Amino acid sequence: MTGPSSPVALEVEGLCKSFRAVQALDHVSLSLQYGRVTALLGDNGAGKSTLVKCISGVYAPDGGVVRVDGAVRVIASPDVARSLGIETVHQTLAVIDPLDVVENLFLNREHTRGGRFGAWLGVLDKKRMRTESGEILGRLDIRIPSLRRPLSALSGGQRQAVAIGRAAAWGQQIVLLDEPAAALGVEQAARVLDLIRSLRDSGVAVLLITHNMDRVTEVCDRAVVLRQGRKTAEVDVADVSKDDLVAYITGARSGDRDP
Amino acid sequence: MTDDPAATGLMPAAAHRWLSRRRRDSGLRPYVVYMAAVLIFGLFAVILRDDGFLTATNLLNIGRQAAPIAVMAVGMTFALASAEIDLSIGSVAALSSLVAAEAVGDYGFVAGAAAALAVGAGIGLVNGAITVKVRIPSFLVTLGMLGIVSGIARNMNNLQSLPIRNDTFLAVFGAGSVGPISSLLIWTVVVGLIGHLVLHHLRWGRHVLSVGADRSAAAALGINTDRIRITALMASATAASFAGVLLAGRLAIGRHDLGENLLLTVIAAVVIGGTNLFGGRASVVGAIVGSVVMAMLNNGLILMGLRVADQLIARGVIIILAVALSMREQKET
Predict the structure, then answer these.
(1) Do A115 and A241 fall into the same domain?
(2) What are residue A124's DSSP bridge partners?
(3) Of A71, A147, B118, B249, which has fewest CB within 10 angstroms of its CB?
(4) Are A28 and A230 in contact (CB under 8 A)?
(5) Does the ipTM exceed 0.90?
(6) CATH code where residue A245 lies
(7) Backbone dihedral angles phi then psi of residue A208, each to the nearest 5 degrees
(8) Pairing between strand A230-236 and A222-227?
(9) Do A172 and A45 reside in the same domain of the chain?
């Protein structure tokens, strides 16, 4: 369909999802390639977050097929998504307020100590997780004042940084970012873009939901536009202007291929 | 940290670091229960000094009264941490005392305790499964269970108490002591220690807290929230049945109403100990200290010579006040 060289990481075909009478996703198809950033655009209620939740195992789609590395997969739960190398930063961030930074980074993939018995019991290896957290955040150039502070004590930007850091740290193949820079200041937003670039450069397939056209032209290779649950356009970002993208989003223009 | 008084040299740096770490973690809240404990102890020591409040026997008695409250409170801490609540604990303790008394007579003291704990775990499993699978709020499920279990306990021995004559059982779970320390106190410390370690050092404890803080976020991270909520309710019911064993051990009987009236006391102990009534924040140590506070209150009201009816009224007022105060403190943080 697209992308001459990069292999396809994730392929969604004919995905449907309804909530009672509302058809949130109507036969949406999409593919993500390794080392590429794909923008997922659309107005509020267009179905962007629903699509992300279907891929990340939060929602079960009503119909359609998801392929990861060419193999059909049923992503029945977030656990399955994670085991397939799909990491997600949800709009709500999914960080846990009373837990500290280390615990949030390692939530549900904790290191244990004490051998097999310790693993069965779930005895946390706090020291190892603290060390590795420092390494992870250092590698991603994310600055958090203290790893031992609960998330409730951090600023909005720092909370977001933890959520993105968690996805970036574990997302070996595919990272889905739902509005990752929404609550960030200018400098922090720039950091997030750097982070997305470095993920791309290390070969990760990235899906980025955003309302900010500057970000699309800055880091994205492809753009997919949803409107009322349908895909209305899929274009190479280099071929179109910001105005074109806005026109697709508002429905002033449509077309499934490059215009 | 922008406004740093240490930088102005008003406070020794180390002291300030300690203070600010405490403050930003959780405000004064963790200390409310300790202040309450000291305050009430001091108050009773003064006004009840001629009524024997400070005698060794009485203090030991307070400890023995606190033991079953504390054990239940540790279990309730996990239920509340997961944003559930278990209203059946009093009746579970009562039924467990009867089951223990029955089994101990037939099969010995280990079987007595084990049978009681199994009953608790089973009731907790049913509570949890109905809450999660049928999607009924746990306060309703466990309220219904409270009635069911009380009824079963009343049927079990026709409202008669069942004496326990197994000396080992009575020594281990009641009257016995190691040196000068009552076995009830030892059990309280053991249960508290286990609870604290589980909450802070086991994956399950952190997951319970996560589910209670934000269930959908926990689910999005792949935590099996159903399993966590069910096991948290199992923990509270199992702890309640162990409290029933301790009550049976202390009184040398099993009876249909042992511990039945402790529910409100336990909830109060847990909440003034710093655990959030609606999930996401929990303190096992606070729950234990809160239990001692509640036991002191009970004891003080009795020593003051209040009639049972007036004790009930006074206790109700104090519990509402204490919980209101600690919840206001929690909201501020």
Answers:
(1) no
(2) A112
(3) A71
(4) yes
(5) no
(6) 3.40.50.300
(7) -120, 115
(8) antiparallel
(9) yes
Is residue A255 situated within a structural domain? no
Largest CA distance in chain A: 62
CA distance B21 to A194: 32
**Measured CA distances, B18 to A150, B11, B21, B325 (Å):** 16, 11, 5, 25
Exposure of B58 in the CB half-sphere (CA atoms within 13 A): 18
- Identify all chain B residues contacting A149, using CB atoms and an 8 Å cutoff: 24-25
* Continuous segment of H or E residues that includes residue B177: strand B177-178
Tokens 């303790």 belong to residue: B93
Of the candidates B109, B67, B102, the residue with the CA atom closest to the CA atom of residue B288? B67
Residue A253 has pLDDT above 90, yes or no: no
Flag whether A1 is in a domain: no
Contact check, Cβ <8 Å, A82/B207 = no
> What DSSP element (H or E) covers B171?
helix B167-173
Question: CA neighbours within 13 Å on the CB side: how many for B81?
Answer: 34
Shared domain check, A174 and A245: yes
Distance CA B233, CA B210 (A): 15
CA-CA-CA-CA torsion for A77, A82, A87, A92, nearest 10 degrees?
40
Q: Round to whole Å and give the CA distance between A131 and A110.
A: 13
The verdict on a CB contact (< 8 Å) between A108 and B222 is: yes
On whether the CB atoms of residues A106 and B222 are closer than 8 A, the answer is: no
For B163, the token pair is 């004496």
Mean pLDDT of chain A: 89
Measured between CA atoms, the residue of chain B closest to residue A149 is B25
CA distance A189 to A160: 10
pLDDT of residue A160: 86
Q: Which domain holds residue A134?
A: 99-149
**Residue A112: inside a domain:** yes
Taking any CB pair shorter than 8 Å as contact, residues of chain A touching chain B are: 56-58, 77-79, 81-82, 88, 90, 92-99, 103, 107-108, 110, 112, 121-124, 126, 145, 149-150, 153
> What is the pLDDT confidence band of residue A9, given thresholds at 50, 70 and 90?
very high
pLDDT in tens, B169-220: 999 998 888 888 899 999 999 999 999 999 999 999 999 999 999 999 999 9
Compute the average pLDDT of residues B117-137: 98
Query: Which domains does chain B possess?
Result: 28-332 (1.10.3470)
Share of chain A above pLDDT 70, in %: 95
A62 and A18 co-located in one domain: yes
How many domains are contained in chain A? 2
Q: Look at residue B10 in the predicted model and tell me its pLDDT.
A: 45
User: Which residue from A minimizes the CA distance to B223?
Assistant: A108
Contact A56/A31 with Cβ under 8 angstroms?
Answer: no
Q: Which residue of B has its CA nearest to A93?
A: B217
